[in-house]
Amino acid sequence: MDTVVVTGGRGASGRWVVNRLREEDEVVVVDRDHPGFGAEPVGNVDFRAADLTDRGAVRELIAGIDPDVVVHWGAIPALGRHPEGEVFENNAVAAYNVLTAAGEAGARIVQASSDGAYGFFFAEETPLPDELPITESHPRRPADGYGLSKVAAEEVAAGVARRHGVQAVSIRPSWIQEPGGYPCREPEYTEDLDAGAGNYWSYVDARDVASMVEAALATEFASEGGHEAFNCVAADNALGEPLAELLERYYGDVPDAGSGVDGDGSAYSVGKAEELLGWAPEHSWREAADENVPRPTLVRD
After folding, report:
1. Residue 133: domain span
2. Which end of the chain is more exposed for a tag (fewer CB within 10 A), N or C?
3. Short-list 103, 32, 111, CA closest to 71
C-alpha cells in the first residue's frame, strides 16, 4: 500500500480523486484548512493543513510524510473570484513548492493542469483551434493569468522530472462535472452557444478525472522519469450536436484541418491517454446528469 499526498483533496473534484485512491492506498489530504481534530476521517484518509505557497512548510510537510506519490490538486480553479495576478502567483508558486518537494522525496507526480493551458477559454475572443480534435501537441497560447499558471505548472513538472528522475503527469481536464449536478446541461448553457464556446462545449465527469489519476499512477511510461500531459474530457460534447455544425453556427468556420471529429464528439482528443494509460472516459451527460451519486465524504458523520 502506497502513501499518497493529495493537495486540494477537500475540493469539489479533489475529493473524487481521494475517494478513488483511498481504496488501495493511504491518502494524506493537504489543504489550506483542516476539518478539525474532532473529525473522524473515512478509511485510509488523514489530513494536514498547509499554505501551499509557503515553501518551507510544504518541504517540511512532504519530507516528513515521505510519500510514494504526490497528487497536486490544490489551486485556484478559475478566474473571476480573485485578482488575476493572485491566481497566477498562487497556482504557479504552489506548483513549484509542491512538485519540487515531491521530486526531492523521489515521489511519482500527478498534477491538475487544465485545458485552459491552450489559451482558448479566457481569451478575449476565443480563437478556432489549429486542429480538430485538439491533441496535446497543440500550441499553448494563453494570455490570461489562469492559463499561464497552468503552463508554468507543467513546465515545473517537466523540470522536476528531469532533475530528480521521477515520473510526472499533467492532466488537462475540461469543465469538470459531478454526477447529478451537471451545470453544462442547465438551460442557460444549452440554450446559449456563447456560454460554452470558450472550450467548444467540452466537459468531463469527476469520476473520469479520478480514474485518469489512478491510471497515470499505475502506468510506467518513462523508466528514468519524464513528463507527459494528457487531455481529460468526455467522448461527446455537452450539447449533443455535431461539433462541426456548432462551430460553423458560432464561429462561421471550422479549422482548415477539417472537423476531424465525428458527430457530437468532443473537440479534444484523448487518443494519447488511451494509448499510454489505457484510459478512456466512461461517463456521458446523457446518464450522469441525472444520476443520484452522492459527493464523496471524507469524514464520518
Report:
1. 3-178+204-235+267-283
2. C
3. 111
